């Protein structure tokens, strides 16, 4: 099988011997004997073509023309994985093409240590620059959403809530709406909110134990929470808590924290090549929920001070959360909730009672305390 390729190679290497090569292809080379005369060929050709029995110092044929298949026989099958799918020094890139990797992964692989230092300093500077202090409690927090943006979010949410509850909102002249508005008017002077346009909406839904205030002063109260409030003092505790969220700019803080949560979950999912659900769940349990519970506790404290300065009985807040605990049996554990447990809230409010009593006295509420029962009976004769 190698006779024809060999002759073709010899003929191309020595074109001036083409006549001899042609004659070799027509007749068989006679065996070398003592009486035979060798063909007048060059030494290199005669050495290659002559049998080993005739040439004592000839070089083996396989040393001059190695078989192409012999180079693969000594290589084990597993060596292809060790060499990285290489053939002839060129890498096989069908499944190992760096261009197929995401841009972020390639940037991380090519980054130098000082690149990470610069990025870390930039993120730290951005975080510190957007850190402020809650005025009424002194808590430091991250907030990168401006007050104007927060108001715009409040206006959009206000239109959405009105559209979702169309037909269920009680009119302004309804007794429940008027009572909620009267309690609110006593709390507004204690709520320093710029650009607020206060409006009260009572939603007819006895199954919903909820109330909330949007940025910009839009108040929503569900009828289901009114029996839990029991009276104006209890309603003042609920409204004071919800207004405190707006005073402390908690909606903007929650949005700022969501940026951190989403960014961290996205980064972890890229670096470790896993689904984003697990990092999101872990970040929610380790960061978002604890921050949310911190905001709720802070709103309890601010709301308690507000209702005390507005001459409402601060002890009604403790009674409110005792009734709420009875109403929300079967609630999830605190570490899985956005709110502290009702029991923990009661204990925290009891701890702030001395400060709330001082705010009540500083506002001169004891001076008019003797007139308040008769005044309330005349002005707020409707009960829930």
TrEMBL record:
GO terms for cellular component: mitochondrial inner membrane. Coiled coil: none annotated. Binds 1 zinc ion per subunit. The keyword Ion transport does not apply. It comes from the Eukaryota. GO terms for molecular function: metal ion binding; metalloendopeptidase activity. Its cofactor is Zn(2+). Transmembrane segments: none annotated. Residues 68-80 have a biased composition (Low complexity). Residues 179-352 form the Peptidase M48 domain. Keywords: Hydrolase, Metal-binding, Metalloprotease, Protease, Zinc. Residues 68-92 are annotated as: Disordered. Belongs to the peptidase M48 family. PANTHER family: METALLOENDOPEPTIDASE OMA1 (PTHR22726), METALLOENDOPEPTIDASE OMA1, MITOCHONDRIAL (PTHR22726:SF1). This is Peptidase family M48-domain-containing protein. It comes from Aspergillus pseudotamarii. The lineage of its organism: Eukaryota, Fungi, Dikarya, Ascomycota, Pezizomycotina.
């Amino acid at each position: 099988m190698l006779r024809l390729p060999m002759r073709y190679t010899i003929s191309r290497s020595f074109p001036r011997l083409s006549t001899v090569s042609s004659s070799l292809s027509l007749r068989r080379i006679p065996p070398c004997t003592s009486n035979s005369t060798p063909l007048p060929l060059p030494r290199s050709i005669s050495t290659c073509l002559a049998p080993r029995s005739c040439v004592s110092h000839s070089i083996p044929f396989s040393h001059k023309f190695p078989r192409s298949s012999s180079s693969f026989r000594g290589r084990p099958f597993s060596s292809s994985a060790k060499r990285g799918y290489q053939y002839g020094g060129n890498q096989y890139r069908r499944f190992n093409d760096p261009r197929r990797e995401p841009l972020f992964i390639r940037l991380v692989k090519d980054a130098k240590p000082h690149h990470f230092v610069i990025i870390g300093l930039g993120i730290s500077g951005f975080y510190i620059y957007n850190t402020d202090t809650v005025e009424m409690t002194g808590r430091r927090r991250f907030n990168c959403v401006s007050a104007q943006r927060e108001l715009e979010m409040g206006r959009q949410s206000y239109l959405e809530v009105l559209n979702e509850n169309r037909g269920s909102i009680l009119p302004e002249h309804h007794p429940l709406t008027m009572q909620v508005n009267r309690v609110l008017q006593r709390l507004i002077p204690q709520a320093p909110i710029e650009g607020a346009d206060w409006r009260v909406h009572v939603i007819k839904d006895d199954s919903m134990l909820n109330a909330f205030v949007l940025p910009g002063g839009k108040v929503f109260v569900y009828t289901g929470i009114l029996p839990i409030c029991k009276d104006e003092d209890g309603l003042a505790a609920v409204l004071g808590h919800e207004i405190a969220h707006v005073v402390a700019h908690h909606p903007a803080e929650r949005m700022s924290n969501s940026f951190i949560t989403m960014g961290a979950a996205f980064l972890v999912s890229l670096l470790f090549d896993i689904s984003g659900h697990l990092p999101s769940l872990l970040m929610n349990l380790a960061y978002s929920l604890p921050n949310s519970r911190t905001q709720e506790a802070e709103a309890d404290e601010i709301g308690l001070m507000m209702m005390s300065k507005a001459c409402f009985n601060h002890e009604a807040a403790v009674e409110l959360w005792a009734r709420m605990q009875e109403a929300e049996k079967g609630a999830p554990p605190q570490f899985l909730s956005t709110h502290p447990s009702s029991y923990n809230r009661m204990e925290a409010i009891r701890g702030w009672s001395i400060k709330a009593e001082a705010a009540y006295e500083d506002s001169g509420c004891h001076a008019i305390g003797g007139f308040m029962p008769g005044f309330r009976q005349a002005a707020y004769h409707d009960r829930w």
